[in-house]
Amino acid sequence: QVQLVESGGGLVQTGGSLRLSCAASGSRFSMNAMGWYRQAPGKQRELVAVISSPGNTNYADSVKGRFTISRDNAKNMVYLQMNTLKPEDTALYYCAAWKTLLRIGPPGSWGQGTQVTVSS
Question: Of 90, 38, 82, which Cα lies nearest the Cα of 64?
Answer without folding.
Answer: 82
